[in-house]
Design brief:
With 215 residues, the protein is α/β, with parallel strands linked by helices. Helix content is 44%, strand content 17%. The chain has one domain: Alpha-Beta Barrel (TIM Barrel). The longest helix is centred in the N-terminal third of the chain and has 18 residues. It is globular and about 45 Å long.
């Protein structure tokens, strides 16, 4: 399992980074991204600390740990500049909290995240075909999620991706220990989104391409 969207107690997760990573390793994860929620108030606090802990954990455990961030509930106009700032601080994965139907995310978030060239547009809700086509053009992955609430539009995201050729990734949006999933459960999420079984491996390859870019 590769999971590039998780949260620690640096935002609203329950676990220290080390415990989250250890639990992921024990259940068979190959790689994990630590992508805590951020805006301009905490970006410079979170990212350097995740960079440091990922460096430490990668020295000792056989799991790839990647520092990142999830830009969350921002005015859409801030997404482009804060994406650049996050990368400058050392974030190797930039996720944007997409327009899920479960929360009042500002309209325009999906489009601005794609224009910013982020790595992953998380739970993009009722994303339009035009936005999905732009995501394909920009190389932004659209997320299929196991997270309750956000997962309600997995089927829509999968269908729009199929129509436009947009690329997908499967993540958990983990906040608590029980949110981590096995590969078997991940496959059920893929099938539940209306995708064929082989798309699980395709999404893993998409995640590996991100990991390959960051080294």
């Amino acid at each position: 399992m590769i999971d590039l969207h998780t949260h620690t107690l640096f935002s609203d997760g329950e676990l220290l980074p080390a415990e989250l990573v250890r639990r992921a390793l024990v259940i068979g994860y190959q790689a994990i991204g630590l992508t805590d929620h951020a805006d301009s108030s905490n970006l410079d606090l979170i990212v350097p600390r995740l960079v440091e802990v990922c460096r430490d954990l990668n020295r000792y455990w056989p799991i790839k740990v990647i520092p990142g961030v999830e830009l969350t509930h921002l005015p859409p106009e801030l997404i482009v500049p804060l994406t650049g700032r996050a990368r400058a601080l050392g974030a190797q994965i930039v996720v944007v909290h997409g327009e899920t139907i479960a929360e009042p995310v500002p309209p325009g978030t999906n489009q601005q995240a794609i224009l910013a060239g982020v790595d992953i547009l998380a739970h993009p809700g009722l994303i339009s075909a035009a936005e999905a086509a732009l995501a394909r053009e920009k190389g932004v992955l659209l997320e299929i999620t196991s997270r309750s609430g956000h997962s309600l539009t997995n089927g829509h995201v999968a269908q729009v991706a199929k129509e436009t050729g947009a690329h997908l990734i499967l993540n958990t949006d983990t906040h608590a220990p029980g949110d981590l999933i096995s590969a078997e459960k991940a496959l059920r999420v893929v099938l539940g989104a209306g995708l064929p079984e082989d798309h699980f491996q395709i999404m893993l390859e998409n995640a590996r391409r991100i990991i390959g870019r960051v080294g």
